[in-house]
Amino acid sequence: METLFIILIGAVAAILANRNIAVFNDGLRPIVSEHIDGGLKRRELGLTAFAMSFGLVIGFGIPFTLSASIILIHSILLGTDIIGLVTPKNKWGTPVAAIVGGLYGWGILTGLEGFVKLFEHLPVNFIEPLGEVGTPVVVTFMAFPALAVAMQFSIKKGILTFAVAALVRQLAVFVNEQGLLTIGDNVISLNQEGMALIVGMIFLFTYAMSEKAGEGSAVDLASVFSEKVLRIKKNVVYFMIIGALIAGATNLLLMAGDPISLNLLAEGKQADAGIAAAARAIGFIPLVASTAIATGVYSPVGFTLIFVVGLFSPNVWIAVAIGAVVILAEVMLLSYIAKFLDKYPGVRNSGENIRSAMTKLLEVALLIGGANAANVIAPGFGFFFIAGFYLLNEVAGRPIVRMAIGPVGAIAVGIIVNILVILGIMNIPQ
User: Fold this and answer.
1) Distance linking the first and last C-alpha atoms of the chain
2) Which of 38-52, 126-140, 249-263, 311-325 has the lowest mean pLDDT?
3) What are φ and ψ of residue 186, in 5° steps?
4) pLDDT of residue 188
5) In this structure, are strands 71-72 and 255-256 parallel, antiparallel, or unpaired?
6) The pLDDT of residue 5 is above 50
């Protein structure tokens, strides 16, 4: 059943991309819209999709998938974007895209299992140290609302948000240590990062909603892009299918929607992963909604709430049913969301700032995590390698995205150490 879920997700996602209905890469949606309007040929669209997504699959999706032995959704959906858009949109191209997309999903799953088994036979099995890559991510994630506030409103408001969130986190730690929350005989434990995150999000959206549209400055998204919204609504059945599949696969703990929840799942913290996924989904609604409304091209994961559904549902079939309903509601509410974003332009503008804040935070956290993992694999050499790798990548113009340096570098150190041990140049690190 697990294999079937992944194959179907790959096949359906490739069909959505092939038919210009939905793509996962946010940056591709305006380009697909341009192709739909006749401004870009199919061949150029396919090449652009490859250029924008291939590096992220290799440098971002795959390393995270290997480090946690759980599929990061980017590994599949960035690949199906390429498969669907490279394949011609005609009567034979769509079935080919579906078949190749399904085989690609199956390859990701079986390849992951194969890699895990391969690691067990290596002189230095570095799969466990790779878990260190995500350790700083989980803790630092709570800081992204404060960074988004600082970027959009002011550094003073950002510092205030950060200070209050940090205080709430430490209060939660104190409450847990003292056992102050009890229901009957049960002691309730607060998730300190989750509490800080909630406080940060409250600050962010309070500031955003206080920024009203100036007279004559509002963009009437609902009316200007009504045809685009209608196009998305016509394809709602496809979104319900893939939403149900992804929610089910998430419930089976086969995949995660972002590096933070992925690392929490790897630690066995499913409820915490659900909280992190919910915070990310709420933060991303303005970005996903505004790009969808403006382009008529949706995301196969919608507002990413389907991952929250998967993580909190009691079983896979309930996750499948609720996942379909949630993404149906998202699509049907797009016009109302457009009106809300018109009324509160601060919320609309916060979408890009939230994404930028998350990216900056992940760049730092993953670099630290990658350096720690590499140093566990090869003490001393690990720090040296990651530092050199990062700086050389910067000088070279960043052929590898900053977020991927830590995970890719840690994997590279593991491979190098095994080669040196086999050659007899290095002893097995203790």
Assistant:
1) 40
2) 126-140
3) -95, 130
4) 59
5) parallel
6) yes
Q: Are 200 and 161 in contact (CB under 8 A)?
A: yes
Predicted pLDDT at 180: 64
Degrees, nearest 5: CA angle 173-69-49: 105
CA 291 to chain centre: 17
Separation between Cα atoms, residue 401 and residue 52, nearest integer Å:
11
Residue 26 to residues 31, 97, 157, 215, Cα–Cα distance (Å) = 10, 20, 28, 30
Q: What is the 3-state secondary structure (H, E, C) of the chain?
A: CHHHHHHHHHHHHHHHHHCCCECCCHHHHHHHHHHHCCCCCHHHHHHHHHHHHHHHHHHHHHHHHHHHCCEEHHHHHHHHHHHHHHCCCCCCHHHHHHHHHHHHHHHHHHHHHHHHHHHHCCCCCCCCHHHHHHHHHHHHHHHHHHHHHHHHCCHHHHHHHHHHHHHHHHHHHHHHHHCCCEECCEECCCCHHHHHHHHHHHHHHHHHHCCCCCCCCCCCHHHHCHHHHHHHHHCHHHHHHHHHHHHHHHHCCCEECCHHHHHHHHCCCHHHHHHHHHHHHHHHHHHHHHHHHHHCCECCCCCCHHHHHHHHCCCHHHHHHHHHHHHHHHHHCHHHHHHHHHHCHHHHHHHHHHHHHHHHHHHHHHHHHHHHHHHHHCCCHHHHHHHHHHHHHHHCCCCCCHHHHHHHHHHHHHHHHHHHHHHCCCCCCC
327-351 residue pLDDT tens:
999 999 888 887 777 777 777 777 7
Q: By the 8 A CB rule, do 263 and 135 touch?
A: yes
pLDDT tens column, 104-117? 999 888 877 777 67
Spatial distance between the Cα atoms of 381 and 13, rounded to a whole number of angstroms: 41
CB-based contact 146:158 (threshold 8 Å): yes
Distance CA 354, CA 123 (A): 43
Q: Which residues of 209-235 are buried (b: 16+ CB within 10 A; e: fewer)?
A: eebeeeeeeebebbeebeebbebbeeb
Q: Which amino acid is at 71?
A: I
Element (H, E) at 187: strand 186-187
